[in-house]
Amino acid sequence: MKSTILVTGGAGYIGSHTCKALRDSDCLPVAYDNLVYGHREAAQWGPLEYGDILDHARLDQVFRLYQPEAVIHFAAYAYVGESVVDPGKYYQNNVAGTINLLESMRRHGCRMIIFSSTCASFGLPKMIPIGETAEQNPINPYGRSKLMIEQILKDYDGAYGIRHIALRYFNAAGADPEGVVGEDHEPETHLIPLVIDAALGRRECIEIFGTDYPTPDGTAIRDYVHVTDLADAHVRAVDKLRRDGSSDQFNLGTGTGTSVRQIIQSVETISRCTVPVREGHRRPGDPPELVADPRKALQFLDWRPRFSELETIVGTAFRWHEGGGFRGA
Ligand code: UDP
Predict the structure, then answer these.
(1) What ipTM was estimated for this complex?
(2) Measured between alpha carbons, how far is 205 from 208 in angstroms, rounded to an integer?
(3) Is 232 found in the same domain as 211?
(4) What is the domain range of residue 241?
(5) What is the pTM of this model?
(6) Is residue 225 within 8 Å of residue 293, measured between CB atoms?
(7) Ligand 1 center to residue 219 CA distance, Å?
(8) 79 and 209 share a domain?
(9) Distance of CA 229 from the midpoint of ligand 1 (Å)
(10) Are 87 and 235 in a shared domain?
(11) How far apart are CA 278 and CA 103, in angstroms?
(12) Residues 260/190, Cβ–Cβ less than 8 Å
């Protein structure tokens, strides 16, 4: 019998790519999404159950109906700036919502959860690359909400035997290589889609947030990892929990850093367009460099990024955005 996996936020960016990967590995992904940021069209790899993680009655109904073997939990708000202005929204949805979900899991005897965590939980790291044991000192409510859940998950493991794997994403980017799903945020704040829009003349220019960082070209460095590679890591994480049942944490990045200027250059090469640039001030709270040490995921999840070369990330993202995303579908 197919394994059923409940995917909260399954109509979102990383969630929808993960549902596709689950379907390809012969599981039944059930997307649970309130469609605040998710797209109905993105949930095409299994049933879509409309619902909010704060609604425990609705969650119970869905657990009763599908009796999932495991949960992959993406549903969360993820705008750093907004989390500073409105932390209540982040603690309510991300933290209280996750507790709600965990309580539903307890009531229905579901004992495995894969959790979307973030490199923002490390704050301003003392050392690059960032390994799993680096100190976690988040500097905004979004990062704190994710770290709180990592801690709550450890307590739920000790007390109730719910096993978890926390996956800390670095910069998720790119789109499904088959072009069926992709990134479609409203509002969009991420670098690659904004640079692509500037290349396509859909926005006036891209503003570089800071050109005076202590990096080779003065712009901030990030570890961009293809969303399809992240999706694959989730399938592997479920397998690992099934196999050895031990809770764990993994940093998911490539180990290679790319600067803002290198991203712009790559978009120019792929689009064959010039990207108009404005040099601006640093964005508050942005560290100069965030690069993962992915060795633990390589070793214990046997995870090998296959689509995370810069040309593939930018190429797949460009094709998706050029085609208009879900609006062009
Ligand atoms: N960035 C930029 N201009 C923009 C958006 C982002 O220069 O309009 C920079 C940002 O300061 C960071 C990098 O691009 O150094 C990646 O930002 P993004 O928001 O995509 O991801 P984050 O690293 O903040 O999660």
Answers:
(1) 0.99
(2) 10
(3) no
(4) 3-172+226-252
(5) 0.98
(6) no
(7) 10
(8) no
(9) 20
(10) yes
(11) 48
(12) no
Quote the radius of gyration of the chain (alpha carbons, Å).
19
Catalytic residue selected from 77, 142, 156, 224? 142
Residue 329: per-residue pLDDT: 54
Residue 179, domain member (yes or no): no
131-141 per-position pLDDT tens digit: 999 999 999 99
In a domain, 47, yes or no: yes
Task: Tell me if 138 is assigned to some domain.
Answer: yes
Return the residue matching tokens 């991420």: 190
* Domain at 166, CATH number: 3.40.50.720
Residues in the chain: 329
Asked whether residue 216 falls in the same domain as residue 232, the answer is no
Could you tell which of 80, 130, 222 is best to mutate to test the pocket of ligand 1, judged by most ligand atoms within 8 Å of the CB? 222
Mark whether 142 is an active-site residue: yes
Asked if 299 contacts 259 with a C-beta cutoff of 8 angstroms, the reply is no
Residues 6+ apart with CB under 8 A from 221: 213, 215, 257, 258, 259, 288, 289, 290, 291
pLDDT of residue 197: 97
Question: Tell me, what's the pLDDT at 214?
Answer: 97
- Whether 178 is in a domain gets the answer no
Q: What is the pLDDT of residue 324?
A: 87
Binding pocket residue ranges, ligand 1, CB within 6 Å: 171, 189-191, 194, 206-209, 220, 222, 260, 283, 286
Give the CATH number of the domain where residue 213 resides.
Answer: 3.90.25.10
Query: Do 167 and 130 share a structural domain?
Result: yes
Which residues, 6+ apart, have CB-to-CB distance to 154 below 8 Å? 164, 247
Q: Clarify whether residues 132 and 90 are in a common domain.
A: yes
Looking at the structure, tell me whether residues 9 and 148 fall in a common domain: yes
Identify the helix (H) or strand (E) that includes residue 7.
strand 3-8
Q: Whose CA is nearest to atom 10 of ligand 1?
A: 209
- Cβ atoms of 320 and 183 closer than 8 Å: yes
Helices 310-322 and 260-271: crossing angle in degrees, nearest 10, is: 60
Residues of the chain short of pLDDT 50, as ranges, are: none
